[in-house]
Amino acid sequence: MPSETLWEIAKAEVEKRGINGSEGDGAEIAEKSVFFIGSKNGGKTTIILRCLDRDEPPKPTLALEYTYGRRAKGHNRPKDIAHFWELGGGTSLLDLISIPITSDTLRMFSLVLVLDLSKPNDLWPTMENLLQATKSHVDKVIMKLGKTNAKAVSEMRQKIWNNMQKDHPDRELIDPFPVPLVIIGSKYDVFQDFESEKRKVICKTLRFVAHYYGASLMFTSKSEALLLKIRGVINQLAFGIDKSKSICVDQNKPLFITAGLDSFGQIGSPPVPENDIGKLHAHSPMELWKKVYEKLFPPKSINTLKDMKDPARDPQYAESEVDEMRIQKDQELEQYKRSSSKSWKQIELDS
């Protein structure tokens, strides 16, 4: 049999890649996206930099930032690519959630919610607003994708349910998030000094939310050991590395619970006296846990938009010529406002 020519070998390789990368066969695509959302100044950038082995100080994320990482998957094979998106501003920039989540990226998309454990009063509203906004947009994209590629949507849903064993007692009680979700509690070094009862409420509440959404839950801090564990989880989302099977549910230690390994039976009921539960009017288990949590940690009524710094005045982006022109325009604007105000007052007097 004659040996293959170089052209024939190249042609066969291209055809092989086309088959493996086709949309209809359910094969994994080499590019994945991981979207980080969560508490403002909660440590999202630090986690991303650690995962990418970048030794640089984190800078504040002003809006929506993007970076990427590569990982070799074998000799003489193209590297896998992971796209990392990060939403800044806590809950003040929800409109930007739609940018990284599209029908093209959704099939290989994961969500990482980073919550600042040192600010328990902000924890529930941050978590609720971000998850609701993200789920709402994901559902719209799934509906749109389903009209053109119903098989892809079916595969996505099946993949989500694969985290839960078929004989798991809570299989009929949970409502998995439409894309893989990891919840990270940051600043554990501050959290571990909280009173025992406060730590108990926070741990049980986050365990309930994570399990209900079919999500993984873990705590981290600046500890190298904890950051390495988080890095392993993110690498699993970004590059498909084997998922960790370790678990820690002890509230006196950093939680580490992979999706599908917890249960409502182990979590227990909301931490409130039995005679008080009847006084809490709730339409769902999630609402009940929210009421119990906010009874101990009432949310602060703050205007998140006011909390956003003006990027134009941020010293890290200073440019002398631009800043001088900005000052000049600000002065012109104030002068215009004053002259306009005088004109309107004169009109009122004349009338």
Automatic annotation (TrEMBL):
Region (Disordered): 304-351
Domain of life per record: Eukaryota
GO biological processes: determination of left/right symmetry; intraciliary retrograde transport; intraciliary transport involved in cilium assembly; regulation of cilium assembly
Subcellular locations according to the entry: Cytoplasm, Cytoskeleton, Cilium axoneme; Cytoplasm, Cytoskeleton, Cilium basal body; Cytoplasm, Cytoskeleton, Microtubule organizing center, Centrosome
InterPro entries, A to Z: DYNC2LI1 (IPR040045), Dynein_light_int_chain (IPR022780), P-loop_NTPase (IPR027417)
A Gene Ontology cellular-component term: apical part of cell
The UniProt record lists the keyword Cytoplasm: yes
Keyword Cytoplasm listed: yes
Compositionally skewed regions (Basic and acidic residues) per UniProt: 323-337
GO molecular function terms listed in the Swiss-Prot or TrEMBL record: dynein heavy chain binding
Family as reported in the entry's similarity comment: Belongs to the dynein light intermediate chain family.
Protein name (record): Cytoplasmic dynein 2 light intermediate chain 1
Protein species of origin: Gorilla gorilla gorilla
Gene: DYNC2LI1
